[in-house]
Design goal:
Elements: H1 3-25, H2 30-35, H3 37-47, E1 62-65, H4 71-81, H5 86-89, H6 120-139, E2 148-152, H7 154-158, H8 160-171, E3 177-183, E4 186-187, E5 190-191, H9 200-206, E6 210-215, H10 219-231, E7 237-242, H11 265-275, H12 287-293, H13 297-317, H14 319-329, E8 347-349, H15 350-361, E9 368-372, H16 376-379, H17 382-388, H18 407-420, E10 424-430, H19 438-446, E11 452-456, H20 474-479, E12 485-487, H21 492-503, E13 510-514, E14 518-520, H22 530-535, E15 539-542, E16 550-554, H23 558-567, E17 574-578, H24 582-586, H25 590-597, E18 603-607, H26 616-619, E19 624-626, H27 637-644, H28 648-658
Parallel strand pairs: 1-2, 2-3, 3-7, 6-7, 9-10, 10-11, 11-13, 12-13, 16-17, 16-18, 18-19
Antiparallel strand pairs: 4-5, 8-14, 15-17
Helix pairs in contact: 1-3, 1-4, 1-11, 1-12, 3-10, 6-8, 6-18, 8-18, 13-14, 15-21, 18-19, 23-28
Length: 659
């Protein structure tokens, strides 16, 4: 059997696994996986650089399947590589398997990114490539020198997030980013001609990409396109592969219904017979296909071992390199950071406190990368930009990401940076614009990525910009994302404590909500529970002599309001609880939560300048929650506080009326 015949056997074997797995699961997307099989086979068999013994080898090429619905294509490739057993392939889409309907990076070895929401895999690949370029500049090409490959579908290209991040990739000259667009011109509802007339070659060339068009089933042409992409160092490359949905099937080529539904048993049998596979056998893996696919593996293993030896030698001989490599690889839990202290009594916006903290830690964290969505002064990231330089604009060693007015692209790039490894990523914008990047926020949490979302201007206290910019429901909405940290500090010291709590964990993204208005700085020497209490999400800030008869909870800017209000209510013994993070608080044991909230105390109040509903969990349905369930207005912040009842006098009156 010639090598060409063996290549065809590999492709047909992959297609057989795709058909069998989707048929057995009675769900899945076989058509696109089959149209992409030629490109994927060429890439994985002949080009992809990886360690056959370790899916986490740091200098491996990254492959991101943006078309996550084509998951069986990736699972078949992982099986051929030796990373995923056939037993898992046979359990495709079943509970507890390593082969879910869409790939999940924290679940399956060899999966680089969780994909499914179309466009985000493509977008995250820009973050991967940016991380590689930065680390290559800092550590040297002898240690960091790998490609980022991404496979995208028609649906990925239609999602605007792809174009938003592609623009940045072109501006940043990410020459080691290579995207393959499987242009089969079919989607679930029918032909793409119904919805799209874009000339993607012209579009991406306008974004400063190299664009190569090929027959996506001509494996020789695909190989030449990949070689040309690797030779282009100043531009990312888009390879447009013109393909056919369900390519190679007996009777269903080009059928849009194969996009999202398993093939009938008789069509599967006929297709296998056409390819020379056993039409009666399922989940076939011919020895000849596996051996041919793995022909490069001994050399790949040797290359990875040589890299490890070079790493040891460079670490021993180069102190600057060793220090940077330590920064890249030190677990977050081992970070010991110093933050600025703040003068008690001073009024300071928590966004300013964040900026001062950022200035303090940016040299302590040489792998910290991030930026603001064109709001550098408002998000207080100017000092970071000026000190660290703009990534790829000043040099690849720059750490500030100038993303322009692109909140969603910023968030997906943050995820890609974190997934690559070795980078601590953050991004900043106004809280009200978190809606633009919310699905990326969700993907951060789903992938257990410790990325930092800095959301300033966190309430109606934004003032004159009016209701379009005044967040009302946003803090509550973000709190509902599982595995996330909601951080709404009460003042400057809580801000630094929140940042420390985030930076020293490695499993959850954080949404830190910061004020525009000044807040009185508290003295941690007086309020001694702060340091440990912030780490636990909620704590007793002010207590009473004797047993309290009222518990008042607050977060963020409303903590000082609660303190002022309590002074107007001497007839009550009020315990004030600061709740900078509901989600952190919920991770504590019940005994701690009860010690803070005192369940037997009947009089309970919560106050926050946002939606009230989540607070009833702590005060009960008979408790008092003072929040906002309406949009704001354009007016000075102090006037709005008066109108909405967020003054000590008005809150005290509400409490007296209630209790």
């Amino acid at each position: 059997m010639s090598d060409l015949d063996k290549d065809q056997l590999v492709v047909d074997t992959i297609k057989g696994l795709v058909m069998d797995a989707t048929r057995k699961a009675n769900s899945g997307h076989p058509g696109g996986a089959m149209s992409s099989a030629d490109f994927a086979t060429v890439l994985f068999k002949d080009f992809l650089n990886y360690d056959p013994t370790d899916t986490t080898w740091f200098n491996r090429d990254r492959f991101i399947l943006s078309a996550g619905h084509e998951s069986m294509l990736l699972y078949s490739l992982l099986n051929l590589q030796g990373f995923l057993p056939m037993a898992e392939i046979e359990q495709f889409r079943q509970f507890g398997s390593l082969t879910p309907g869409h790939p999940e990076s924290d679940l399956t070895p060899g999966v680089e990114a969780t994909t499914g929401p179309l466009g985000q895999g493509f977008a995250m690949s820009v973050g991967f490539a940016a991380a590689e370029a930065f680390l290559r500049e800092k550590l040297g090409e002898d240690i960091i020198d790998h490609y980022t490959y991404v496979l995208a579908s028609d649906g990925d290209m239609q999602e605007p997030i792809s174009m938003g991040t592609a623009t940045l990739a072109g501006r940043w000259k990410l020459g080691k980013l290579i995207a393959f667009y499987d242009s089969n011109k079919v989607q679930i509802a029918g032909p793409t001609s119904r919805v799209d007339c874009t000339d993607y070659k012209q579009a991406y060339e306008a974004f400063c990409w190299q664009v190569i068009e090929v027959d996506g089933h001509d494996r020789a042409a695909i190989a030449e396109a990949i070689k040309s992409a690797q030779l282009e160092t100043d531009r990312p490359t888009l390879i447009i592969g013109h393909t056919t949905m369900a390519k190679g099937t007996a009777n269903r080529e080009g059928d849009h219904e194969t996009h999202g539904a398993p093939l009938p048993p008789e069509e599967i049998a006929a297709s296998k017979k056409k390819w020379g596979l056993d039409p009666e056998a399922f989940f076939q893996m011919p020895e000849a296909a596996q051996a041919h696919f793995r022909v490069r593996q001994p050399a790949l293993k040797a290359k990875a071992e040589a890299w490890r030896q070079a790493l040891v030698e460079k670490t021993q001989s180069n102190a600057d390199f060793a220090a940077m490599w330590k920064a890249v690889t030190t677990p977050r839990s081992e970070l010991k950071l110093t933050f600025p202290d703040f003068k008690p009594g001073d009024k300071m916006a928590t966004r300013k406190a964040w900026g001062l903290c950022l200035a303090e830690i940016m040299d302590q964290l040489p792998t910290l990368m991030g930026g603001s969505a064109d709001l550098d002064p408002s998000n207080v990231t100017v000092a970071f930009r000026e000190h660290t330089g703009n990534f790829a604009v000043d040099s690849f060693a720059g750490r500030n990401l100038s993303v322009g007015v692109r909140e969603f692209p910023m968030a997906t790039i943050m995820n890609g940076l974190a997934l690559h490894g070795g980078i601590i990523s953050f991004g900043a914008t106004f809280l009200t614009f978190s809606d633009y990047c919310r699905n990326a926020c969700r993907m951060s949490a789903l992938q257990e990525l410790p990325v930092l979302y800095v959301f300033t201007h966190d309430s109606f206290y934004l003032g004159e910009d009016g209701p379009t910019h005044q967040p009302i429901e946003h803090v509550s909405a973000l709190r509902l994302i599982p595995n996330s940290l909601d951080l709404r500090p009460a003042e400057a010291t809580e801000t630094r404590l929140c940042l420390d709590a985030f930076l020293t964990q490695d499993k959850s993204p954080a949404f830190i909500h910061l004020t525009r208005q000044g807040l009185p700085t508290l003295d941690p020497a007086v309020y001694t529970n702060m340091t440990e209490g912030v780490k636990r999400g909620g704590y007793v800030l002010v207590d009473t002599e004797g047993e309290p008869d009222m518990v008042m909870l607050a977060s963020g800017s409303e903590v000082s309001l609660a303190m002022d209000t309590a002074k107007l209510l001497p007839e009550y013994k009020i315990r004030i609880v600061s709740m900078p993070s509901m989600n952190l608080f919920e991770r504590q044991d019940q005994a701690y939560k009860d010690s803070v909230l005192l369940p037997k105390v009947a009089k309970r109040v919560a106050v926050e300048a946002g939606r009230p509903e989540l607070w009833y969990k702590y005060v009960g349905m008979d408790g008092l929650v003072h929040g906002i369930d309406h949009f704001g207005h354009s007016a000075p912040a102090n006037l709005l506080a008066e109108k909405y009842g967020f003054t000590a006098e008005k809150l005290a009156a509400l409490i007296k009326a209630k209790y």
